[in-house]
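Handout, section B. The chain below has 146 residues.
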Amino acid sequence: MSGLETRARCTLTGSLEQLAQLRDFIRAKAPQYGCSEEDTFALELACDEAAANVFHHAFESKSGQLYFAMWRDDDAMTVQIKYHGRAFDPSRVPEPELDAPLEERPEGGLGLYFMRQLMNEIMFEFDAVNGNVLTMRRRLTTESRG
């Protein structure tokens, strides 16, 4: 699989209802790139969280388009999500207080935390003219590299 340049792509138009389509897409395509079940699940969950954040926050509960691409470079999978919508500063998102009692925790706020836990690199680019880009990379498990 080294040097594989073919990118799997899909476009989601709408809102949160499209997340099932994105999860199905990742479950179908990731194994074609040699991803293990563990890597496929991590990609699926990170992308689900990222897309949910875009649909909910960047589109402000309106309909919008999200362009998704996924590819493998040597021992890592890269996923990229492009969209036009409201930008945000990820450094201003506080780390969740996982030790606090459940009833004292604020609602939400775990999406970015999960993305950071599941992926090795996360990069946000915000551009009001050309659109926003979220790029995430995950080094594959030994099982996937084999």
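Note. Residues 53 and 111 are 7 Å apart (CA to CA). Compare this with the example in section A.
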